[in-house]
Amino acid sequence: MIIRISWRIHCLRLLETRHLSSTHPLLRYIMYDPPPERPSESDCCGNGCAECVFDVYDRECARWRHRLRTGGEGDRLRRDLLSATKHKPYRIVSTVALADDVRAYTFAATPTANGRLPIAYTQHVHIRLTDSLSRPYTPVTLGDDDCSFDVLVKAYPGGRFTGRLSEMTVDDVVTVRGPFGGVRYDGYDSIVMFGGGTGVAAFVGLIGSMLDDDKCETLLRLHYSCKTLDGVLMRKELAGYAAYWNCAVHLYLTREHDWSQCSKSFWYNENITEGRISQDCIAKIIDEQQNLRTLWLICGNDEFNQYVFNSLVNYNIKRDNIQSLNNTTKDFEVS
């Protein structure tokens, strides 16, 4: 805290004495990118974690010094509103039911702020409630200029976190820390994604952001497993993505009891298969990727992730080209 205050005072004094012009790029750091906050001793659990909160602090300080030297990534990136070492307040803007047990929550910085949060798609944040219950979530969409993000939350019977969150209403406040994890996907000809249930959240934003780039020629292939057609999350968005030349979406329904009736509800050009993502399906998917530099991404529950990972390895896919987005992927910085 002393570093943060002294830094701001130093910049303000330079401005007052006209040694720093009002248009100087360093001024944005007074508000938008102050030095990372040092964790308190109580923030360390004392369990000898592989990456202690103080290790995170040291890394964030090194990144901050680098941004200070190089000019950072732009005026709209609000690093002051999100920290990997300290929880920041966010309010619930809206909550919408997407399925019987899944809701979409929109959180925004409080007080209201303009700009973009320093989160990359496939990264996750930790959301903490007032009673210190905390869970990691991967933002599915990011607000372009209102410092907000959306997450999909699945309610589990007897779940302490989701039960408490369901009792909260619009304008109630949580705290958020992050971002963490993330995947580097530059340099690949193709990205094949396997999603299970709410795990699709890790991919929807990634696909959308890549398709928004007119210069992107990376082939995008999403294989999404759900129990029923009614349980397919963000179906409209996925159908829109599938209309692009370089994107294909394949849905797998594992527990649809009346297939003949269900098939009447298929949309035009939807690619839907009855049953799980089988070994034969994975073999065919791999065969389609011959001679392509392919990144394989997986996000679902532990059983789903392990099944797909083992299947890919058994078909001689290099482990270095497989990433399981289970909220423990190696941390990297937004660029």
- Cα end-to-end separation: 26 Å
Strand content: 15-25%
Spatial order of the strands forming the largest sheet: 4-3-7-1-2-6-5
- Major sheet description: 7 strands, antiparallel
Name the structural class. Answer: alpha/beta
CATH-defined topology of the domain at 190-324: Rossmann fold
CATH architecture of the domain at 190-324: 3-Layer(aba) Sandwich
Name the poorly predicted regions. Answer: 1-5, 328-335
E-strand count:
13
> Fraction of residues in helices?
25-40%
H and E string: HHHEEEEEEHEEHEHEHEHEHE
Mean pLDDT: 83
Can you tell me the CATH superfamily of the domain at 190-324? Answer: Nucleotide-binding domain of ferredoxin-NADP reductase (FNR) module
CA-based shape:
globular
Please identify the top-level CATH class of the domain at 190-324.
Answer: Alpha Beta
Q: Determine the number of helices (DSSP H or I, runs of at least 4 residues).
A: 9
As a whole number of angstroms, the C-alpha radius of gyration is: 22 Å
Family: Belongs to the flavoprotein pyridine nucleotide cytochrome reductase family.
Binding site for FAD: 135-137, 152, 154
Protein name: NADH-cytochrome b5 reductase-like
InterPro entries: CBR-like (IPR001834), Cbr1-like_FAD-bd_dom (IPR008333), FAD-bd_FR_type (IPR017927), FNR_nucleotide-bd (IPR039261), Oxidoreductase-like_N (IPR019180), OxRdtase_FAD/NAD-bd (IPR001433), Riboflavin_synthase-like_b-brl (IPR017938)
Describe the protein's topology.
Blueprint: H1 2-16, H2 28-31, H3 53-70, E1 88-99, E2 102-109, E3 123-128, E4 134-137, E5 141-142, E6 148-154, H4 160-166, E7 173-181, E8 190-196, H5 201-211, E9 219-226, H6 235-242, E10 247-253, H7 259-262, E11 271-274, H8 279-288, E12 294-299, H9 302-314, E13 322-324
Parallel strand pairs: 8-9, 8-12, 9-10, 10-11, 12-13
Antiparallel strand pairs: 1-2, 1-7, 2-6, 3-4, 3-7, 5-6
Cofactor: FAD
Domain FAD-binding FR-type: 85-186
Binding site for FAD: 135-137, 152, 154
